[in-house]
Design a protein that fits this description.
2 domains, seven-stranded parallel beta sheet, UDP-galactose 4-epimerase, domain 1, globular, 306 residues, alpha/beta, 9 helices, Rossmann fold, two-stranded parallel ribbon, 36% helix
Length: 306
């Protein structure tokens, strides 16, 4: 992508700032963030930063492409205040896209979630049945339905990207500001590198399809370049347990820090125990494939502590 005017909402957050910094090399990029989970310190100097909410009027939507990454992105944020979660994740999405539409933008790429697949020890294709068990999942599925509306009624290209467990690292990555909301790879690596015992909810047999943020950024850019329509997975198609993750981090860091097992605060009947992507649809549409495997990803994260 070159020579475009681009808006990235949630642009000072973890994924948004990585995307904004990458695109700013060849484009005019505006990063919008209310700084709840983001910080402008994540952004390079060539990115224009606007502190605002996606619920505001007069957003800087006179652009060629909108990447809508802004969201309240955890279970707890929605269960503590479901109405606020819906306002930010659903109303904020509709507000941003509609302002962009009125300003002539026809291409939107937005973040949805892979959590709606539920527990999966097999790859999850986009056309499989999905369920909603939490306010967070409901808000992201509502985005997908509103995206259908904007496409069917107004002809916008609306690409929803279902991310799988995105990580980068605390120390030199853009996850440090997220604290307890950072990816488990980032949290566990930081704990182990600093001699703290990582806390695992449950018995540690739960698995995740860990996907490096660089691969996510490439996928987002390709979705806009191809003006994709519909929903697409971005994940590796591999899954690793939290117990294995702790062992692998100890091996990479040369440590022997044991985890602490705690009761899972999320009810078992809504907790997603296992995730695994099927990214065939994205590969066939754009040629995208993950380039950073689990081992290389851990090396990158742990290198931050050497």
């Amino acid at each position: 992508m070159q020579g475009k005017r681009i808006l990235v909402t949630g642009g000072a957050g973890f994924i948004g700032s990585n995307l904004a910094n990458h695109l700013a090399a060849d484009n005019d990029v505006v990063a919008l963030d209310d700084c709840y989970l983001g910080t402008p310190e994540n952004l390079n100097d060539d990115v224009e930063f606007v502190e605002a909410s996606v619920l505001d009027d007069d957003l800087p939507t006179d652009v060629d492409v909108v990447f809508h990454i802004a969201a309240l992105s955890s279970y707890a944020m929605h269960e503590d205040d479901p109405a606020h979660g819906a306002r930010v994740n659903v109303e904020g999405f509709v507000n941003t896209v509609d302002q962009a539409r009125q300003d002539g933008c026809e291409t939107v790429v937005y973040a949805t979630t892979s959590s709606i697949y539920g527990d999966r020890t097999e790859p999850s294709p986009e056309d499989m049945p999905v369920t909603v068990n939490t306010g967070y999942e409901a808000s992201k599925l509502a985005r997908e339905r509103y995206a259908e509306y904007f496409h069917n009624h107004y002809g916008l290209s609306m690409a929803g990207m279902r991310f799988f467990s995105v990580y980068q690292g605390m120390e030199e990555g853009a996850e440090g500001h997220k604290g307890e909301y950072a990816n488990l790879i980032a949290q566990f690596a930081d704990d182990i590198a600093n001699g703290r015992r990582p806390e695992i909810w449950g018995d540690g047999t739960q698995t995740r399809d860990f996907t490096h943020v660089d691969d996510i950024v490439r996928g987002l850019e390709l979705a806009a370049d191809h003006e994709l329509q519909g929903v697409y997975n971005l994940g590796t198609g591999e899954q690793y347990s939290l117990n294995y993750l702790v062992d692998a981090l100890n091996e990479e860091l040369g440590t022997e820090v044991e985890p602490v097992y705690e009761e899972n605060p999320i009810p078992e009947d809504v907790y997603v125990h296992d995730t695994m992507a099927d990214s065939t649809k994205m590969r066939e549409a754009t040629g995208w494939e993950p380039e950073i495997g689990f081992d290389e990803g851990l090396e990158r994260v742990c290198a931050q502590y050497r």
